[in-house]
């Protein structure tokens, strides 16, 4: 079981509606990876609490997710609009940071597709590296699509190999 939490230590996601939309996309992204793993790993959302400082990462959470600007307490600073949109750390670090200066889209129509970005970055959190297949979510090049992003056969196959599941669907 892997726990995750979306929090807003810099108070960059101002409305409750937007925070709920981010959480819904996160749940959907984690669900896709969980289904691909066939129950091998379960993802549990932990409720966010008010954290005053960036260093206040909850102790009971494996994956800490938030939007940030510039230098925000880790080795990689955010670079503003148009550059690196997010970064995450391979296990056991468990952090996923999104650049608050990007023009984010929750439906893939305008701006950087939050659905695609979260699905890709969660793959890194699971230990996945980039794949050279253009149709793979784990391709290093951002790919915008109006469709709901989905894991490809190649993403699932690489995941099975990583976790030694030997079940290619």
UniProtKB/TrEMBL annotation:
Keyword Hydrolase in record: yes
GO CC aspect terms: extracellular matrix; extracellular space
Binding residues for Zn(2+) 2: 120, 124, 130, 138
Cofactor requirements of the protein: Zn(2+); Ca(2+)
Residues given in the record as Ca(2+) 3 binding sites: 79-80, 99, 102
Gene3D superfamilies in the cross-refs: Collagenase (Catalytic Domain)
GO biological process: collagen catabolic process; extracellular matrix organization; proteolysis
SMART domains listed in its UniProt record: ZnMc (SM00235)
UniProt-listed Pfam families: Peptidase_M10
Co-factor remark: Binds 2 Zn(2+) ions per subunit. Can bind about 5 Ca(2+) ions per subunit.
Residues annotated as the enzyme's active site: 121
Domain Peptidase metallopeptidase: 4-165
Entry binding sites for Ca(2+) 1: 102
SUPFAM superfamilies linked: Metalloproteases ('zincins'), catalytic domain (SSF55486)
Source species, domain of life: Eukaryota
Positions of Zn(2+) 1 binding: 72, 87, 97
GO molecular function: metalloendopeptidase activity; zinc ion binding
InterPro entries hit by this protein: MetalloPept_cat_dom_sf (IPR024079), Pept_M10_metallopeptidase (IPR001818), Pept_M10A (IPR021190), Peptidase_Metallo (IPR006026)
Protein's UniProt keywords contain S-adenosyl-L-methionine: no
Record key words, sorted: Calcium, Hydrolase, Metal-binding, Protease, Zinc
Stated family: Belongs to the peptidase M10A family.
Name of this protein: Peptidase metallopeptidase domain-containing protein
Organism name: Diploscapter pachys
